[in-house]
Amino acid sequence: MVIGAAVRAKARLGGVRPGNGMPRGFTLIEILVVLAIVAVMVLAVGLGVDTGGAARRIDTEAERLAALMQLACDESALSGQEVGVRFQSDGYRFLRASGREWQPRTTDALRSRRLPTGLQLRLRIEDREIDLDESSPVSLREPDTEADTGRDPAVDPTQRRAQSDALRPHLACDVDGVIATDARIELGAGEFTAVLDIDGDGSLRIAGTGSSP
Question: pLDDT by residue (tens digit) across 89-106?
Answer without folding.
Answer: 999 999 999 888 999 988
